[in-house]
Amino acid sequence: MDMGQWEGKHSACLVALMKAVNLTYKNGGDDLFLNRLFAYLQYKLTVQIEDIVPIRKRVFKVKTVDFDFILKGYSSYHQLIVQDEFTASLKKEGFLQTYNFHPLIVEGPLFMDQWYFGCLEYLPPSENVFSFHKKQDRIQGLELLAKFHDATEEIAEQSRIRVPVFNQLEKWQERTAIFLSNLPIIRYYVQKEIINEWLIWADWSLKGLHKEDIFEKGRRVILHGDVAHHNFLRVMNEDLYLIDFDLISLGHPLSDYLQYANRILPFLNWSLDELSNLCAFEKYLDEKAFIYALAFPTDIFREWNRAIMEKTYVQPEKIKQLLKATVAPFQQRQNFFYQLQQLQEI
Q1: d(CA 308, CA 186)
Q2: Residue limits of the Aminoglycoside phosphotransferase domain (predicted)?
């Protein structure tokens, strides 16, 4: 029974539950949604709900009488099932540094406002927050990522989880095409000499990757797909956990390492020497494809494309942050690109 059917049949129960927990429709849409969600969960789950706190869009921390859990929305039931099965497979392969899905539903699935919801284990965070600013955290993140790939290689080989195949070159070609279509707006904020340099980096990278096929051969793992700092969580006992697998796909582990490199390089002042000092990258710097890929300005294209799609570039504070992230380190990145070119000539 979905939410609409339940509300129609149990409207009296809905009102009674809201009164019992002193909930009101005080702020319109958001509070109305939380009120409906509260009542729905009370009806559908095996635990007694005390409070619901929004974390971000379609993600909530739910407090029950006995414990807390995370409620997360998925766009399809298939996506929810894949996530549940994937985390279970990780545990089976010995990768324990992530959450479990809680079997709290009386009868499933949880379905509300066209979203399917899963109940995830809440992992209390440490006060020692993971950050790419810290050298030791960067190293630990790479070690955890390597362990994750070891586990997902087994899962991929056994075809236990069916996920899309990741195509690195195709993704970057698409990102470049969108960036090019956005140039009329970008030119208003960024001088043409800098934009032209960005395009030179992208062209050199994409042409080089056309010649190298490392992404299409060799080891196959299930990629995490979003190795940003917020997906590494240090928990109360100081262990590091990996979370949020919404973008998993099948591919070469190099793709995750490229993304990780792009995330940490700003904290290394775009120093190729500093990057090569990390053992995980040392071996890849002998791969021509990796050198070409490092040159691609994926973060610059991504952030400008997003800002234009979401129209945040018209907000003074947002455009200030965007320029700081993409234009301010231009000289460092230009030097980084020259170093990559020199490596390919050796």
Answers
A1: 9
A2: 143-259
